[in-house]
Design a protein that fits this description.
Layout lengths: L10 H10 L9 E4 L4 H10 L3 E4 L4 H11 L4 H4 L2
Parallel strand pairs: 1-2
């Protein structure tokens, strides 16, 4: 789970580093941020984010996004 707005480095920079490192390149990345502009979504997608959730969000939205990244079908997630 990665925020775009962080002190010292942006989440975009961290995402570039994650995707550029062979050991972490395949990790699923959920961007969770208040920056929900279309341009931010586009940049996150181009850099390899797997999912994008904007604030304000419900806990259910985040749980559903994480479960999807883990490959758990939505029907099973609600049991």
């Amino acid at each position: 789970v990665l925020d775009i707005m962080m002190p010292k480095r942006s989440g975009f920079e961290v995402l570039k580093q994650i995707r550029g490192n062979e050991a972490t390149a395949a990790l699923p990345v959920l961007v969770l941020t208040a920056k929900g502009q279309q341009q931010d979504r586009k940049i996150a997608g181009e850099l390899g984010a797997d999912s994008f959730v904007t604030k304000p969000y419900s806990n259910a939205d985040v749980i559903e996004a994480v479960r999807a990244l883990l490959g758990e079908p939505a029907a099973l997630a609600r049991r």
